[in-house]
Write a structure and sequence with these properties.
The chain has 390 residues and is of the alpha/beta class. The protein is 32% helix and 18% strand. Strands 5-6-7-10-11-12 form a 6-stranded parallel β-sheet. A 5-stranded antiparallel β-sheet has the order 1-13-14-15-16, covered by helices on one side. The structure holds N-carbamoyl-L-aspartate and zinc ion (3 copies). One zinc ion binds next to loops.
């Protein structure tokens, strides 16, 4: 098979450290099958499937099921994330070692959707992770500071009568966990960084030798709390959309490398959970099929990253952080390659109903975006081509 690639950019296949695939438990919104298709169409060759499923992925039976199902579908490597604590309740450590040594070989542990609020438990999780050589990915929010919070703390939340969500809820726990990670000599990964202050904390922690990495989502690079003006719950997400000044500093921190990579936090939700009043709506938005375009818009068109830099933030760094030896690397001759081919000048219009996900909760509905993934190859086999699954 010959793929015509004139004028296009050939990148290593993208790696997403933060995907919610909803299987088991919420197969009405996404399955490993449909989520893998969305990933392949978005240029991804590996995704890390978050642990907040139902039942929670806190044991070897669940993580092995997710891993095997991903292999059966065969469109993208699905690496299950194990829960740090049993049932995501944050009271008792899960059997991290059993999951790390299971068939799924779990490399990343997280309590995303919840935070390990107890500092002693977090310290023990980090110490355990050092012994296992795995990564703890922290949801990065002090839950006791966001009780009842509905929107970024500021003028707009106040005007709409919503309880504010302070930047300090994120920054204080990221600082705490950086200190604990340094103490335990552990690798900490910070999920969905949303404030400029968190970038400052990360810079400070990295300067003193902490093994900390961090991700930013496409939506926190592009969207701001100005979106709240319409009350549309499609814009409700955890952590909340922040200010233009936050978004600007997140883009700069990503370009500088203080924030290591882009992760989608792809969060499918059912119509009834989104098409309701703001306070009742669930937080989260789709991301797998739009990530490359949002990175093109916010980072490439602004001159903040060249395509080499895009390869770094969408593929190389996430593969390194997630311990994937076979992803995110330049192609060696004779080796089956993981690749994404991108037309940087083409544009497309986002339609939630046309995305491969079962859910349709995209905040980019009707937007015309630059950057089209024209082909994705997993170990030398074409998984997606011109917007269709192969
Ligand atoms: C995520 C989800 O729906 O599972 N929601 C979200 O708003 N990001 C959980 C999470 O990442 O915190
Ligand atoms: Zn989260
Ligand atoms: Zn998440
Ligand atoms: Zn759909």
């Amino acid at each position: 098979e010959v793929i015509e690639a004139n004028g296009q950019v050939l990148l290593p296949g993208f790696v997403d450290l933060h995907t919610h695939l909803r299987e088991p438990g919420r197969e009405d919104t996404e399955t490993i099958d449909t989520g893998s298709a969305a990933a392949a169409l978005g240029g991804y060759t590996a995704v890390f499937a978050m642990a907040n499923t139902d039942p929670v992925a806190d044991n070897a039976v669940i993580v092995d099921h997710v891993w095997r199902r991903g292999q059966e579908v065969g469109l993208v490597d699905v690496h299950p994330v194990g829960a740090v604590t049993v049932g995501l309740k944050g009271e008792k450590l899960a059997e991290l070692g059993t999951m790390a040594n299971s068939q799924a070989r779990v490399k990343v542990f997280s309590d995303d959707g919840l935070c390990v609020a107890d500092p002693l438990l977090m310290r023990r999780a980090l110490e355990y992770s050092t012994a296992l050589d795995v990564v703890i990915a922290q949801h990065a929010e002090e839950p006791r500071l966001t009780v009842g919070a509905q929107a970024h703390e500021g003028e707009r939340a106040a005007r709409l009568g919503y309880t504010g969500w302070p930047a300090a809820a994120e920054e204080s726990i990221v600082a705490r966990d950086c200190l604990l990670a340094l103490h335990a000599n552990a690798r900490l990964h910070v999920c969905h960084v949303s404030t400029s202050g968190t970038a400052d904390v990360l810079r400070w922690a990295k300067d003193r030798g902490t093994k900390v990495s961090a991700e930013v989502t496409p939506h926190h690079l592009l969207l701001t709390d100005e979106r709240l003006a319409t009350y549309d719950p499609v814009n409700k997400v955890n952590p909340p959309l922040r200010t233009e000044s936050d978004a600007e500093k997140l883009r700069a921190a990503l370009a500088e490398g203080v924030i290591d990579c882009v992760a989608t936090d792809h969060a499918p939700h059912a119509v009834q959970d989104k098409d309701t009043e703001w306070t009742a709506a669930r937080p989260g938005m789709l991301g797998l099929q739009t990530a490359l375009s949002i990175v093109t818009e916010t980072m490439v068109r602004t001159g903040l990253l060249d395509w080499r830099g895009v390869a770094r933030v969408l593929s190389e760094r996430p593969a390194e952080i997630g311990n994937l030896a076979d992803q995110g690397r330049p192609i060696a001759v004779g080796e089956p390659a993981n690749l994404a081919l991108v037309d940087p000048d083409a544009e497309w219009t986002v339609r939630g109903a046309e995305l491969a996900s079962i859910a349709a909760n995209t905040p980019y509905e009707g937007m015309r975006l630059p950057g089209v993934v024209t082909a994705t190859l997993l170990r030398g086999r074409t998984t997606a081509r011109d917007g269709k699954i192969c």
